[in-house]
Structure formats: structure tokens, C-alpha cells
């Protein structure tokens, strides 16, 4: 899980499955949430990617290692 969080904090996008893991949901639920628009995503070369800025916002993170107040 620590590696997943590190990716969210340092990479511009992550895959839907990793985003789901960080949010505490499984693969199928993550894809359904992406389809419903609950997990924001962009399509790049046939793959859906989750912008980490939006994911950090969903998690209440404002900067690397800090939480929103």
C-alpha cells in the first residue's frame, strides 16, 4: 500500500485498479466507479488513467504527505 500511495503522490496519473486500491475498493468496483464518473479518468492510448491530482483531492491530500484541514 505504501508504494501505491507513493505513486499517487509522485506520478501524474495512475491506473484505475491502483486508484481503487488506494480508495479501498476492488478492481470491479473501481471500474464501475470510473464508468459512473465517481472516479475521474482520462483515456490515453486506449487506457483509462486517473489523474493523481484529482485522486489526492478525493483522499483529502493537498500536498505530498499532508492532509487538508
Q: If you compute it from the alpha carbons, what radius of gyration comes out, rounded to the nearest whole angstrom?
A: 11 Å
Spans with pLDDT under 50 lasting ≥5 residues?
none
Assembly classification: single chain
| Proportion in β-strands | 15-25%
The secondary structure category is alpha+beta
Strand order of the largest sheet: 1-3-2
Mean pLDDT: 90
Element order: H for helix, E for strand: HEHHEEH
Total beta strands: 3
Count of helical regions: 4
The major β-sheet equals: 3 strands, antiparallel
Distance between the termini: 23 Å
Domain module tally:
1
Helix content: 40-55%
**Shape verdict:** globular
Summed up, what is this model?
The chain is an alpha+beta fold and 69 residues long. Helix content is 51%, strand content 16%. It has four helices and three strands; from the N terminus they run H-E-H-H-E-E-H.
Main attributes of the structure:
single chain; 69 residues; alpha+beta; three-stranded antiparallel beta sheet; 3 strands; globular
Amino acid at each position: 500500500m505504501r508504494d501505491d500511495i507513493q505513486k499517487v503522490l509522485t506520478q501524474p496519473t495512475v491506473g484505475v485498479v491502483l486508484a481503487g486500491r488506494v480508495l479501498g475498493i476492488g478492481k470491479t468496483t473501481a471500474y464501475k466507479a470510473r464508468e459512473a464518473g465517481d472516479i475521474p479518468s482520462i483515456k490515453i492510448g486506449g487506457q483509462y488513467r486517473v489523474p493523481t491530482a484529482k485522486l489526492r483531492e478525493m483522499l483529502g491530500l493537498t500536498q505530498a504527505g499532508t492532509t487538508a484541514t
